[in-house]
Amino acid sequence: MSGATPVSAARTGDNPFLKAVAAVSTFAGWVSAGMIVVAVAITCQMIFVRFVLNGSTVWQTEAVIYLMIAATLIGLCYVQRLRGHVNVDLVPLALPMGARKLLAIVTLGVSSAIIAVMLWYAYEFWHFAWMRGWRSDTVWGVMLWKPYLSLPIGLALLLMQLLADLYAVIANIDKPFGIQAEGLTARASGDL
Questions:
Q1: Cα separation of 21 and 118, whole Å?
Q2: Cα angle vertex 45, ends 79, 71, to 5°?
Q3: I need a surface site. Which of 101, 108, 116, 157 has the fewest CB within 10 A?
Q4: Nearest to 118 by CA among 71, 155, 77
Q5: Mean per-residue pLDDT, 76-84
Q6: Which pTM does this prediction carry?
């Protein structure tokens, strides 16, 4: 796994499309972090109500669950932009730059196709919940289309970032897997 040297965020160069996608992904990361902070605050409030005031909670647990799921989904594009996912780079490091680029194009293309299919079904699921007026079967009874909206939004943002990464590799704006050409020789010699 890549642990010796941190890989930087996806490069944008002077490309306006890549800069716009990077800005949207960064904003989504901030929104995701905000959701986590709100979920922690609600959890603290819930603990206070239950154990200090000896009261019952109605909406807190459900809200925290929905916020954490939404934060995860909406934050996917930011993690992709920073290359923060678990990355096993043994095969890309062993390949010459041309094969590494081809592998990156295939990997990003297949990933984009899979996320596009997931996005289609996520939208369909959200739309079905919206059209049918589904509500959670809890006391709060939240309209489920609201928390389910994070599914198509999060997957659409991730797809957008994957396509930007694919374009950046094809246009030689970014290196495949974020690995510089000299990375193999430096790692082989033990310099990193």
A1: 20
A2: 15
A3: 116
A4: 155
A5: 91
A6: 0.84
